[in-house]
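thread: overnight batch results

M.L. [08:02]
morning all. the overnight job finished for the chain we discussed friday. pasting input first so we're all looking at the same thing
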Amino acid sequence: MNHLEERRALAAAFRWTARLDMHEGVANHYSLAVSEDGSRFLMNPYGRHWSKMRASDLLELDANEEPEGMGDAVDPTAWAIHGALHRTCPQARCIMHLHPKYATVLAALKDPVMPPIDQNTMRFYNRFAVDAGFDGMGLGDEAERLARALGNHSIMLLGQHGILVASASVAQAFDDIYYFERAAETYITAMQTGLELNVATPDVAEKTARQWEEYEAIADKHMTAIRDILDEEEPEYLH
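M.L. [08:03]
and the structure it wrote out:
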């Protein structure tokens, strides 16, 4: 099996996302570049439930060539979005796109800001893009537009849609998407109280965001801990 370790890492991310109920049926997609230029990438097959994902299930696709089985093995919107991103953003090795509850609620707001009210929201202070140009399900021009909108950012809130993270590794992408959802949950829950939010000053928010960035190996340790559990409880993900 080609790219075995990359496949195992990505399969673990799928399974853990399902455990956290951050997935959406058999929709949404994760992909991971396996060529130097990023054009060849692994992605989940259409219709495979994330809780059952195995390393061998993952498809290897070419961002420059429409795959066989489009609409059967390959979700057309997934290939359009992830293909466009891997074609145009080679630095984005791992791309995770989800519609998790709280990030999607945030994306549905007219003004999808996330003020720095705790250390998790401060992690993303001035560190994510917002795309407000939703124009359908992500096919054709919409996919190319999303790739342009991402630019040099690693996190993009997709207005009226969900969230997209593009990082250097599976571990970093998963850690970012996990903590963004936790941050959005805190913010949405705090707003539901109807009480005044305690917003940090810009200096404190920026300081905390930098501290997150300097927190040594947190993403790798997070993924290692997840895989330790899966190795014991669901070792079939490795195959």
